[in-house]
Amino acid sequence: MAITSASFIALICALVVLSILPPVRRRLKQRSLRNVPGPISPSFWTGIAKELHSPFDMRFREHVLTSYGRAVRIAMPLGDVAIALSDPVAVGTMLGRHREVFELPVWFSETMNAVWGPGLMSVQGKEHSLQRRLLNPAFAVRHLRDMVPIFNRVSKELVDVLRKEAPEPGTEVDIAQYLSRYTLESIGRTGLGYTFGSLESHGTDYSRALKEFGPTLMRLHHWRLYLPLVRRIFPRSWLRWATEVLPWAALRHMRGISDNVYMTSLEVLQRKRELLKQGDESLSSDIGEGKDLISILLRLDATVSDENLIGHMSLLTLGATDTTSTMLSRVIELLARHPDAQGKLRRELTEATAGAGRSLADIDYEAYLNLPYLDAIIRETVRLYPPLQIAPRVAESDAVLPLGTPVPDAQGQPCHELFIPAGTIVWINIFGLNRDKDTWGPDANEWKPERWLAPLPPSVSDAHIPSIYAHTASFLAGPRACIGYNMALTVMRIAITHLVLSFDFARRSYGGTAELSRLPSKAPLP
Ligand code: HEM
């Protein structure tokens, strides 16, 4: 049957009406959210979303996340409202009782799926629980223990490269760049059983593709909101064809990134399956010594499909590297800014090694846990500088969230719960939870590792912050809590120990207050 132009126009009109009805209904139901305190929007059309997501205006975002209380109204484009929550009672409910209502937004998981394939961050609901159950055992402490010698070896390589780079005292070195390569290599060897090459070189196409993902995504940010709708209308093969023919540089670049990572992952995986067939001995002689996450997964369940494993490989590497290397850079920058803390840490580490007649290679997983000042420095840095400041969720149906701290209603009376209409974006305000003065005290914004050496004030435990680490929300909690947090902490403990025992870090003379996006990356080494 031929499609007439009238029926085509009718179809387009129907699609337009169908796609605008839910947002209109949501805006009508968001009345009560409009009373929640928040920054004034400069424009009905854009809201403050653009400023909030700008990597160049961290100060504005941090101001918004800490200055309006535990529930903050965020004006979104075209009069939509989102809410940022750092109220532990509300966040606890989102991650606990209402965990099935508050999911990752579909545009987020669809983007991940389109670029990386089916990994943890690209699936939802039951599929996510299944995948998570499959992956959890690979992250058990007993496997992490086996990875410590590999982390030690990469840390030693890092120190050797830095020594070559800075043979003279006082040489300036772009330390952040090396920490980024170090993290990628550590995760590559222990996650995938793959090496990205020497820490001196600038990496492989795979590592470059991972690095370019974030900036390319920013260029496509507004368009990806329409991805779920587009995917519902067009078959996958059409979309793939469109990425080839459309004259859209960012989209083509993203396709290149996706293909590149896919091909490398497939190659690594096929090699691993081959080695596994040859027996455990062959796998143990490979780069990850058979102790890497993918080898562990293949041993646990050899029936997992290549498609799933490739999705996991890409998303694990993506989730692991930038976060961990940002934290590491931050620790080194803070130690450079606080020479007393650096000296105290060096004394603790020297006592645990030379003082106890042990070499660095003798420090195992448990011994690393018994270094209280190192532990305090990591806890405090993870609390104050979480690499992910907000975690997005969307209400899949209408929901009511209880509040520990009330917000004003239309009459200015305290309101102890928030009605969240279906489709509303709710950001879990990690940054706000970690810096709340009522919880952490008036010095919440200061970096004080010492706070972890004495019992914490009762306000911290009384707050019942949803957390899997040190009462902070940095790794989140609930069904989507960071699966690799223990691995990240282990990588950090080992790298910091090697670095602080090998170098003295100082601030560059121009110093200044560092922004997360602009870490001072050059530190003089002796
Ligand atoms: C300091 C370093 C790290 C930080 C601060 C961090 C933080 C987080 C946070 C906040 C989430 C939740 C995001 C959300 O649900 O919106 C998350 C999820 C995740 N992280 Fe990490 N992460 C770190 C390191 C790692 C490492 C080393 C790995 C893997 C080896 C990893 C793998 C993942 C994965 C796969 C998820 C998705 C979990 C799921 O959806 O079930 N992360 N991470």
From TrEMBL:
InterPro entries: Cyt_P450, Cyt_P450_E_grp-I, Cyt_P450_sf, Cytochrome_P450_monoxygenase. GO terms for molecular function: heme binding; iron ion binding; monooxygenase activity; oxidoreductase activity, acting on paired donors, with incorporation or reduction of molecular oxygen. SUPFAM superfamilies: Cytochrome P450. Its cofactor is heme. Pathway: Secondary metabolite biosynthesis. The chain crosses the membrane at residues 6-24. Keywords: Heme, Iron, Membrane, Metal-binding, Monooxygenase, Oxidoreductase, Transmembrane, Transmembrane helix. Heme binds at residue 482. Belongs to the cytochrome P450 family. This is Cytochrome P450.
